[in-house]
Amino acid sequence: MHILFISDNFPPEVNAPASRTFEHCREWVKAGHRVTVVTCAPNFPGGKVYGGYKNRLFQAESMDGIHVVRVWSYITANEGFVKRILDYVSFMVSAVIASPLIKTPDIVISTSPQFFSACAAYLISLIKKRPFIFELRDIWPESIKAVGAMKESVVIRLLEKIELFLYKKAVRIVSVTQSFKQTLVKRGVDENKISVITNGVDLSRFKPQIKDAGLVKKYGLENKFVAGYIGTHGMAHCLETILDAADKIRRQDGGDEFRFVFLGNGARKSVLVERAKAMGLDNVVFIDSVPKDEVVKYWSLLDVSVIHLRKTKLFTTVIPSKLFECMGMGIPVLHGVMGESADIVTKEGVGLLFEPENADKLCKGLWKLKDDTKLYNRLKANCLTSAPKYERKVLAGRMLKHLMGSGLAYCGYWGAKY
Predict the structure, then answer these.
(1) CA-to-CA dists, residue 235 to 79, 145, 309, 312, 321, angstroms
(2) How, if at all, do strands 58-63 and 66-71 pair?
(3) How far apart are CA 262 and CA 241, in angstroms?
(4) What is the pTM of this model?
(5) pLDDT of residue 291
(6) Number of C-beta neighbours around residue 253 at 10 A
(7) pLDDT of residue 76
(8) 2-200+391-413 is classed in which CATH architecture?
(9) How far is CA 370 from the centre of its chain?
(10) Could you count the other beta carbons within 10 Å of the beta carbon of residue 127?
(11) Rounded to the nearest 10 degrees, how much is the dihedral formed by the CA atoms of 323, 324, 327, 331?
(12) Spatial separation of the C-alpha atoms in residues 318 and 237, rounded to whole Å
């Protein structure tokens, strides 16, 4: 089977959509299928093209057996609603224009969070007369409203109509959470065509290791209990809460034993850095994004991982992918996200929950994990026990079955060859 995958994020970018898409496609290639990914020049989240790449009309490369086609797009940093829409729309147009150069796909799949990639995939599916599959990673544009980037308006209502149109036109929707599935069913989408394949972890990369001695020394983390946030520094994450916790904890007896590490970039990164300076936080370390092959070394620095999202109803439906990376690394979690992801933390016993945007509760959790060695070791052991349940290789195989099933359902229409 030839799978055509449309995604505006792909390695060497290291965000969740890029990692999930790459790791799934890599496993499908290993299973004997042909995979083509249409993406753009790597630039997320800083809006600067990565070294070794150019923002050309069309360029191609091979990555672990995946045929990667990169098309031109309007590139901007991950900030500013209008500029980001221009980025998304330009990629959509370029992907459709490039599609005649891609021969004989059997299915066309796209991934969110933004759905202009899905628009491209749907149009390409019409051109190619092939089934369209929508991988749903976020309820967009609802998430725009949730972070306050845009209020209810004619534009939002138009985007929501397009969103619902795409759900109905997809022959299969692959949701990353049960909550997303329930939301779509309530909105009138046929539940029989919705499959749930959660995010997961590549256990060949994310596994326990001792702290990288060079990095420990470089960032002054010797003999410190290190709490860290690794990922995009965006509006949705409200990382000011972690800065507030760092400020509170340094004022407490023994608080100097804690250090807070932030790794990544995003729309709020510069604001967070300036705020930390203004607060005089000498217990906080900011590190820019690093290449994918080096990320695990930085994960090794953490004694506990802080996962946090803004306190809003929408985010009770999401499952941050970094939760599974924590499990693979054997790093207990302080989880400031309610809902489905909190249920996983509790069920698997891999961390403690705290109320989103509540720095006091975060501080209490930090002290508890530092002082209660028995609890800490139990959570760490549970991480390693639970991680194989969410291994990316297994999840990719499960998703492949759904993709092939979608193709087989269309055999009479487009002549699949299985």
Answers:
(1) 9, 11, 9, 12, 17
(2) antiparallel
(3) 13
(4) 0.85
(5) 87
(6) 5
(7) 81
(8) 3-Layer(aba) Sandwich (3.40)
(9) 28
(10) 12
(11) -40
(12) 12
Q: Would you say the C-alpha torsion 268, 274, 280, 284 has a positive or negative sign?
A: positive
Collapse the DSSP code of 262 into the 3-class scheme (helix H, G, I; strand E, B; otherwise coil) and give the result: strand
pLDDT over 90, % of the chain: 74
The residue behind tokens 């760092």 is 246
CATH topology of 2-200+391-413 equal to that of 213-389?
yes
Q: Average the pLDDT over each of 263-272, 298-307, 332-341 and give the range with the smallest value.
A: 263-272
Signed CA dihedral, 171, 413, 400, 159: sign only: negative
What would the two tokens of residue 184 be?
């779509």
Please calculate the CA angle 215-217-218 and round it to the nearest 5 degrees: 60
**How far is 284 from 259, CA to CA, in rounded Å?**
6
Q: Is 352 in a helix, a strand, or coil? A: strand
- Omega of the bond leading into 105 within 30 degrees of 0 (cis): no
Q: Which amino acid does the sequence have at 370?
A: K
Structure confidence by residue, pLDDT tens digits, 142-176: 665 555 555 667 877 787 888 889 999 999 999 99
Q: What's the pLDDT score for residue 339?
A: 93
> What radius of gyration, in Å, describes the C-alpha atoms of the chain?
21
Tokens representing 11? Answer: 């390695």
CATH superfamily of 213-389: Glycogen Phosphorylase B; (3.40.50.2000)
Question: What pLDDT digit, counting tens, does each position of 135-146 carry?
Answer: 998 777 566 555
CA dihedral over 26, 31, 32, 37, signed as positive or negative: negative
User: Which pLDDT tens digit goes with each residue over 64-123?
Assistant: 999 999 999 998 876 666 777 888 899 999 999 999 999 889 999 998 877 789 999 999
CB distance 407 to 131 below 8 Å: yes
* Domain definitions of the chain by residue range: 2-200+391-413, 213-389
How far apart CA 329 and CA 228 sit, in angstroms, is 13
Task: Please give the Cα distance from 276 to 250 (Å, whole number).
Answer: 13
Of 170, 195, 166, nearest in space to 180 by CA: 195
Residue with tokens 């209008």: 82
In tens, the pLDDT along 194-249 reads 999 999 999 999 999 999 999 999 999 999 999 999 998 988 899 999 999 999 99
Q: Which residues pair with 194 in a beta bridge?
A: 173
Structure tokens, 153: 């308006």
